[in-house]
User: Fold this.
Amino acid sequence: MKKILASTIILTLLLLASCNSSPTANIQGVYEIDKTLLKDQLQTEMGDNPKKGIGIVNAILTNAIMEFHIQGDSISGIFEFIGETIVFNTQIEEKDGKLIVPIKNSEAVITPTKDGFLFTPPHLDVSFQFNKTDRQSLSANTQQAINLQNSERKTN
Assistant:
């Protein structure tokens, strides 16, 4: 009995040590876009015409779906923003000290922050703040959007 207990403790410690050495160990969980911060960024970009800008920003944010689930070294989720849709179900790689998400012939970058991470999509000079949620899985709306995108790919 003592050998089994000792073996279990050693195995658990080894597992914990291996998890902590992973570059994604500190960003496990479900994350969603910080829409308040994004709204402020978009309004700043709109500039001088606040009335027209607010309507456009609200429409963009209403339709935006950006949610990721990081489990182990895998990422799944969707980034749907201003007509650009990227569905993820891939491994996160570490390259030159950066966390990289391969996307077709390009890559996005994840930069951990205090409350979550910054996500920099390919070919954009802007990063989006994602905050950690208390959920254990993607929301029903996000899962529905992913399923819709996947079914559209199959028919094309």
Remarks:
- Residues 31-155 form one domain.
- The CA atoms of residues 29 and 70 lie 5 Å apart.
- Helices lie at 2-20, 35-46, 50-63, 140-155.
